[in-house]
Amino acid sequence: MSVEEIYNGIYEIKADDRSTLATKNLTPGMSVYGERLIIEDDVEYRQWDPKRSKLGAMALKKFEIPLEYDSAVLYLGAASGTTVSHVSDILRDGIVYAVEFSPRTMRDLIQLCDKRPNIIPILADANKPQSYAHIVEKVDVIFQDVAQPNQAEIAAINSKYFLEQDGQLMLSIKSRSIDTVASPKKVFKEEVRKLESGFDVEFEVLQRKELDPFHEDHLGLIAKMFVDEEED
Ligand SMILES: C[S@@+](CC[C@H](N)C(=O)[O-])C[C@H]1O[C@@H](n2cnc3c(N)ncnc32)[C@H](O)[C@@H]1O
User: 133 alpha carbon to ligand 1 midpoint, in Å?
Assistant: First the structure.
């Protein structure tokens, strides 16, 4: 078996001609959603399934993942914490603010946070960043996976509130949440246009790739933000 750190805190484990994405388990002995635990050289890793995680898919699609061990991350659309748990593994000296608006899903997320102090769960609507502005500090990275018709707008308002000047936005855009009949490519083009010039914060898209075969009709992108000072 061989283990290679391909990004900060993200590992590729190779055995018997098979390759597995993984993170180092912050809570050894505990699996979060039934994922396989792999021990190599006395270190325990958690298998990370890219089909269950847009961020995992982005790692395998060779995006330049901007996470550092000590990053502060705002994660919008945390659900019960499948991907957030891997972000928590990566940020061994950092923090992840995990926003989710479904109370039922939040119950599972809170259980996860009991064991992982670097996750701050926030029950809130990502359309209303002012409702959690008293909890969230400026962050290095915003990761968003909310599957809503106004995904670009949610990304823009949260970036304006919380993203550091040199921070980066990582966004998963689900075309069918925006338009069920239009071609995904057309939807993606329009969402990118909105990010580049549709709001009072503007973004430069650094990387964009579709997330197939892991997630059909999803675009992953990484962008940095410009604030139009004249607007205020
Ligand atoms: C595709 S799932 C996220 C899966 C998760 N990112 C993962 O990989 O484990 C989308 C989640 O976003 C949440 N969501 C959708 N709109 C939201 C909003 N406006 N504010 C907060 N959460 C939202 C949904 O309740 C759902 O749990």
Answer: 19
